[in-house]
Amino acid sequence: MRRVVVAAAVGVMAQTAYAADMPDYGPLRGALVETARVVNWEGFYVGGQAGYGTSDMDFSDSTGSLAHQQLVLTTIENEYNVSGWPVLGKKSAHGSGFGGFIGYNWQWDDVVLGLEANYMHGNFGGSDSGGMGRSFTTSDGYTNGVYYSADATMKVKDIGSVRARAAYAFGSFLPYAFGGVSLGQADIVRTASVSGTQVNPSAAPGFQNINFSGSLSQVQNNHFIYGYAGGVGMDMMITRGLFVRAEWEYLKFAAPINTAVSTVRGGIGYKF
Q: Ranges for the Outer membrane protein beta-barrel domain (predicted)?
């Protein structure tokens, strides 16, 4: 009996000594793993932005209609298509602007979808001028010397887009792509001038030469232009609600002068 008591006492003392040597971790409540920060992107947001970019303009077909109006039903237009002569071409120019944006996001886990209206006021545009002369004989026997000159200017003052966004959140970062409708306002001036001399070999001497000239201009101030928009960007949340943005946007506008405006932008916004 004495041996059993002594053995039990020795066992208790050994366990007490082992427990005293163990560090005190406190109660364990799962693995000690830090969870990733979850950013809430859902809701309304507004912001301001500034940008710099390039406007690419194709003036090739911008004055042909004005030249055609002056030559309609003439032999030189019907047979030699003077209004289609390539007197103007493509031009590129740089510009800058500033503006703002407003939108709303819906979020499902890391997937974020949204709608946004974006606006920028700036100075994007360009101009071109040129001329071409030719001599030819038409089917009526006239020898014609014709000179066609033109100039065109387009200044895009206001550009914007209504866009749908698709994004995927990586913590504080929100890379996104977007597409939508481009809208703008521009001042457009176009002028086409046609002049020349027709020689009628059948006419009496002194009456063989027929000189002609004409010019037609069209001025469109605050002209509404539209097309499509696309681009990519990145929002980064820097504190609760406050975020910064970097973006590239491509805007395409249709007639009367085919124009593309490509800008890089930086901005700051607040999500409510």
A: 19-272
Secondary structure of the chain in HEC code, one letter for each residue: CHHHHHHHHHHHHHHHHHHHHCCCCCCCCCCCCCCCCCCCCCEEEEEEEEEEEEEEEECCCCCHHHHHHHHCCCHHHHHHCHHHCCCCCEEEEEEEEEEEEEEEEEEECCEEEEEEEEEEEEEEEEEEEEEEEEEEECCCCCEEEEEEEEEEEEEEEEEEEEEEEEEECECCEEEEEEEEEEEEEEEEEEEEEEEEEEECCCCCCCCCEEEEEEEEEEEEEEEEEEEEEEEEEEEEEEECCEEEEEEEEEEEECCCCEEEEEEEEEEEEEEC
Q: Which of the residues in the chain have pLDDT under 50?
A: 1-14, 16-22, 31-34
| Domains identified in the chain and CATH numbers | 41-271 (2.40.160.20)
User: pLDDT tens, 97-140?
Assistant: 999 999 999 999 999 999 999 999 999 999 999 999 999 999 99
